[in-house]
Specification:
Layout (H helix, E strand, L loop, with lengths): L2 H13 L4 H6 L12 H19 L3 H14 L6 H16 L3 H22 L7 H15 L4 H14 L6 H16 L5 H15 L8 H13 L5 H14 L4 H13 L5 H13 L3 H13 L3 H14 L3 H17 L3 H14 L4 H14 L5 H19 L7 H14 L5 H6 L8 E6 L2 E6 L5
Antiparallel strand pairs: 1-2
Helix pairs in contact: 3-4, 3-5, 5-6, 6-7, 7-8, 8-9, 9-10, 9-11, 12-13, 13-14, 14-15, 15-16, 16-17, 17-18, 17-19, 18-19, 19-20, 20-21
Amino acid sequence: MNSLKLKLFIVAAAVLGGSQAFAQNVQLGPEWGEDATQEQRFENAKTFNYYRDAYNVQNYDKALSYLPELLENSPRGAQNIYVYAINIYKNKIQRSMDVKQRQVYVDSLLTLYDMRIQYFGDNAKYGRPYILVQKAKDYLSFMPMDRDGVREVFVEAIEANADDPDVDFINIYFNELTTDYKNDLVETDYYLEQYEWLASLLDKETAPEADSAKETFDTLFVSSDAAGCDNIEQIFKARVEANPTDVTTLGKAFTLLMRSECHTAFLTEVGEMYYNADPTAATAKLVASAFVKVGDNAKAVSFLKAAFDKETDPLNKATLAVEIAATELVLKNASVAANYASQARQLDPSNGYAAIMLAQAYAEGATACEGFDRQTVYWLAYDILASARSLFENGSPEQQQIDQTMSMFRRSFPSNDELFFRGLTTAGAAYDVKCGWITGRTTVKMVE
């Protein structure tokens, strides 16, 4: 046995139950008694050993009989003095049916936490920040009606862990704070200040696994009446103006404004800043939705087109093209709508909405010509809708809408007399539509 292992063996024997002869040869540190003799320190270490053994066999009353002596003579002896005692008192609190006795246990528990911080608060791993988190959780469990106290212990713990925030622990507190706000126990200004502070801490955590917790945090805020449009603008306006390229802040502001249905000028202002800071297809699509909400379809379609240009996935690109076509129809730009609807069909032939948009664009664009040429456009639009019908489930709302629109188109077909006059007497014969910008091959359709 080398000298290091021998020393460790001797110390372990002395502290954890070795003979007094060992104690006479081993110098125990001041943690086992500040001004005590070596013999007294050894006795204190033996007391801890008895305490630990009783705890391990769940003889909690016996274990507690040693606790006063340990706290009096060697409060720095081992952190497990407090770990064991805290666990024992938590067990007693949970089992106690006497309200007064239970409160005595709770008071003892909190005192033990404070003493643990006093004597082991500088521990690198299990020091003050860690201990305060455990204390706050137990305070909430055993003193839930003391709302001021709950908020106080949580704030203290979060402040202690500000350099390495725990997103789940923050959400526990913010859930309690939101509940207090809804119950009129805290003022709006305080609630908003706490939100800003906690949000700034969450911004420090960039790990992807924290995204879900951040989403929960924002959901809690939106669920409160404090998440009004004026308050959100008050929180974020100065922040986004001070740093207009901070994607995280801009994204959070934009998301909260949209979720709170703040369809204001500030929403679109933040949206444009957000896209400038993060010019991706996903961001462009989000910003487009904001402009739709405020009724600015021209601006919305410009962002949809930006998203379309940046998108690389064919199916997503087709969906964007359909959205562009629909928006261009609202803006009375039928030819542009038809162009994007045609692109959508090419990108994703299974996209039935692309066909619906193209048929509607042709019907809208039929005003580009008059008379018979205009009427034949409805043959072409009818064919397109007929091809789209099978792309939807039988009896679906889309199929029902297609059927209604096809019926309407039939009422706009050329009359049989008009067809006879033009020598088009064979139903199903090929026919090339030429009506302004609308061209395409269809078939002659007789009116039944």
